[in-house]
Amino acid sequence: MRIALDAMGGDFAPEANVKGAMLAAEQLEEDYEILLIGKEDILTQLLKEYGYTGSVIKVVNATQVIEMGEHPTKALTQKPDSSIAVGFGMLKAGKAHAFCSTGNTGAMLVGAMFSVKAVEGILRPSIGGLVPKLSGGFGIILDVGANADCKPEVLEQFGEIGSIYAKYVLEIENPKVGLMNLGEEEGKGTVNTQAAHQRLKVNPNINFIGNIEGRDMFNDKADVIVCDGYTGNIILKMAESVYDILNEKNMHDPFFDKFNYEAVGGSPILGINGNAVIGHGVSTPLAVCNMILQAQKMVATNLSERFKKHTGAQ
Question: Where is it mostly found (predicted)?
Answer without folding.
Answer: cytoplasm
